[in-house]
Specification:
The protein is of the alpha+beta class and about 725 residues long. It has 20 helices and 30 strands. A hairpin with a 5-residue loop joins strand 26 and strand 27.
Length: about 725
Amino acid sequence: MQLGACRRHAGCVTARPDSGPARDATARVLVRAAGEAVQAVGGFAGGIYLRSGSTGLLLLAVLTGLPGSLYRPWWRMHVNRPFPVAEAYRSGRSVHLPDADEAMRRFPQLMAGLPFPFGSLYEPVGAGQDRFGVLFVLRPATPGLGVGSAEGKRLQAVAEGLAAELAELEAAGEPVSWCGDPVMVPSPGRAHGAREALDRLTQAVVSVDRGGRIRHVNAAACRLGMGGPELRGRVLWEALPWLGHPAYEDHFRAVFMSGGPVHFAALRGRQASGEWVSVDLYPADDGVTVVIGTAAGQPASAPESAVRPGPGPAAAADRAPALYRPVALAIALTEAVTARQVSAVVTQELLPAFGGRQLAIYLLTERHLYLAWETGFPQGFLDRFDGVGLDARLPGVETLTTGRPMFFESMEHLAAAYPGIPLDAHVGARAFLPLIASGRPVGSCILGFDAPRGFSPEERTVLTALAGLIAQALERARQYDSEAALARGLQSALLPHRLPVRENVVTVGRYLPGTVGMDVGGDWYDVIETGTGLLALVIGDVQGHGVAAAATMGQLRSAVRAFALSGNAPQDVVAGTNRLLIDLDPGQFASCCYVALDPDSGRALAVRAGHPQPLLRHPDGRTEVLELPGGVVLGVDADAVYPVTQLQLEEGAVFALYTDGLVEKPGTDFDVGVDRLRSALAAARPSPLAETAARLVAEAGSSVERPDDIALLLAARTAGDGAAAAAAAAAE
């Protein structure tokens, strides 16, 4: 699989030997750390991922103990994908997987491509807030035993030492990042005896190290024309290309990772005149012994691609793994719910699998194809095809109208089939795939390649099948978009469009929908002028997401307003809303915090129903988490009692109510998030309230995938005439 040339950027450390002292210094540090990590936990392989010049992309910088060519699909890692390397980088926490069962439970996409029994440990590498990458080690599986704390501490110590050295390099003016291919570190060799005995065998025996390099071949291998001394030091699959067929890659991955012997049949030589041989692989700590014998004709289990390969050049890009990326794509598509997420998954999983560099997805709307996603094409090139009708003679149209995928092994073939068609390049190959879901046309997908290439029968079959999966995901995303638009409209109508303006009090509310799932939920806030002259500050959170949660939220907001406008005491407002929710029986519960504030005196009465504790910033900047006693969430117990707490808001004080989406982060303790919010509120003084609200939601709102909604309500006591400030805050 060809990943293409590196796009240079300032400070990039490359894998090329002529890249200068910066690369050499960093590479030496990385290589040493990888070796120390493998030794520290008894591993057989390991390496280091470093951040790259592309936002959100990690690149494999160093690999030891495994043949690098077998693991090309994992050289690039997006930080938002569900893989252990990405999780360790995102969370800043260790990830330990003792065996395949634990790995399958937590990271099914990893095991889809590497379904072997092995253990693995991943340690983030960072100094303070600066995160450089991830250190990882592969080792034999330990089912049921887990990873010992001593081993975890040893690996963490190596990661901390590496982080300190990288920080020193960065402080010296060498930005630490990576581009290009990883550095492959050879495994230490051992003396091999009994060579005379091996030379007496009639079977060919080849010894390779854990990097796939040949150390020794016996006399039988030489007699079979597999070479001799000139093979030593070469990578097995380069020296014996017939063993490098993609049909056999999984067998070699298995022997290097599982620790058990592997046996399979292979076709040696050309298809017409080649002979079938048996291949036995026997692993050890320092390498693998390859035994090649004769086979009695073509075995029944022979891979079709080895018997009848597709036409075209056998470039590295043609050697995509037959199973890993398609399965990973299928798993990832189940998690994508918007058209943009589907397109991003296809870019991250499908393109690397087949060595592609360009992708375009068109969606069908009223007999016209509209460009929904593109990457890799010259800017503006595809605009001329946006909105074309189904009567246009274009490959992207005809693949959909005929339902037949179209493969062009070179741009010359494409130009000959469609004379006069605009081309974005003169060299390359293209695949046009129909996107059809349950017999309904959805659109078309274009894959582009930088160099001419053939498409084997297996590749054509896999790409056609994947196009069906992509179409199903896009069709599901369309339905989601319609439902989400309805839910967003419903929620927008239910949330307050303007907060009341009162003397001595400024209020500001903010709401952000979650970015995962329905993109809308049951969080709400409100400010109510009660019948007794008090100002009610309300915030709540209905369990779940979607139209049902938004509808329940609307009912609860109306109930709270009705009880408050009737002059009820705070505890009666919350208790009455609780009984109403139980009577409605929507199958949901909700949390709520209700505060009745006297704008003139600053006295307040607060009631809490299972909601996060509010914050209070005093005029001197001291900010505390209020420990309010509370009752159970709404909708559970009709007889629940909700205690009342008296508070005093001085002039210059700021009161903060929020929902858990503002403080919760995956892998982080809830109290840590609350304390982070408290610190941010303390640091925001003496900013205008609207600016303070923007700062508080900025960090959580910038999350790539925020699983929950965010609601925030701030109230500040002002000195004298605060109407103008309140009006300005309400208008923002």
